[in-house]
Design brief:
mainly beta, 4-stranded antiparallel β-sheet
Length: 233
């Protein structure tokens, strides 16, 4: 259990990252990496103190780069920094990771007022669940979900010259919820593939459905797909 610098344990969501390997992509074995087979753990008093989620990894020039989602909801200093962020880490072997010294992407409300993205309401409260790749033009393209005041998730796009940024963000989301559709409450967790000039985006679509027998309303999660020919910027 991670410990605050003062000695008290963190009372939090408790999510960390593990690792498994496979020779065939079907049968996986967990990597023995004590303590607890954790590859990337939470850090007290940081942007991932409460949870480490949703890693995506690419290898570039001999280094593994990871982007992941960090949650910070419980600040003992009383500053209440609550938020969800896109963070980064690097590794030489894919097993031992060093966290990047600053967030890869911040929500709009965490940015300086001079930053253009400070005014992007669609990503004001949360940035999370990202995927990235190296484009044929030499830029790294990062796809992520953002949440605004309407509590709906949208997919945004950013690019940078380095895998961990700094990233320039397009002012408007590239995929938004469609009214009356399977994703009318949110377009979530994009996973992206660059396929011979075609950019393929797979995502979770969130909606609500009502049981005709009970009248109970439940969330429904389905898989969505979008594509666009290169270029995308």
């Amino acid at each position: 259990v991670p410990i605050y610098p003062g000695g008290d344990p963190i009372s939090t969501m408790g999510s960390s990252l593990g690792l498994a390997s496979s020779d065939d992509g079907i049968h996986f074995t967990r990597i023995d990496n004590p303590p607890g087979n954790i590859v990337l753990d939470r850090t007290p008093l940081s942007h991932d103190e409460d949870a480490v989620f949703s890693p995506h990894i690419l290898q570039h020039e001999g280094t593994y780069y990871m982007i992941y989602t960090g949650h910070w909801w419980n600040d003992p200093k009383g500053d209440d920094p609550s938020g969800v962020f896109i963070l980064g880490a690097t590794s030489d072997d894919g097993l031992t990771w060093t966290k990047h010294n600053k967030p890869v992407l911040l929500p709009a409300e965490w940015r300086d007022e001079e930053d253009l993205a400070f005014g992007y309401d669609w990503m004001s409260g949360i940035v999370a669940e990202a995927s990235f790749f190296l484009g044929p033009d030499g830029y790294f393209y990062l796809f992520f979900q953002g949440e605004g005041p309407d509590e709906k998730m949208r997919v945004g796009l950013a690019r940078a010259e380095h895998p961990l940024g700094p990233y320039t963000i397009k002012p408007q989301p590239i995929i938004s919820p469609t009214a009356g559709s399977f994703d009318d409450r949110g377009v979530i967790a994009p996973h992206v593939l660059y396929d011979s000039g075609l950019v393929r985006i797979y995502y979770n679509g969130l909606s609500e459905v009502t049981d005709p027998d009970t009248g109970e309303t439940k969330e429904r999660w389905l898989l969505g797909y979008a594509e666009k020919q290169w270029p995308i910027w």
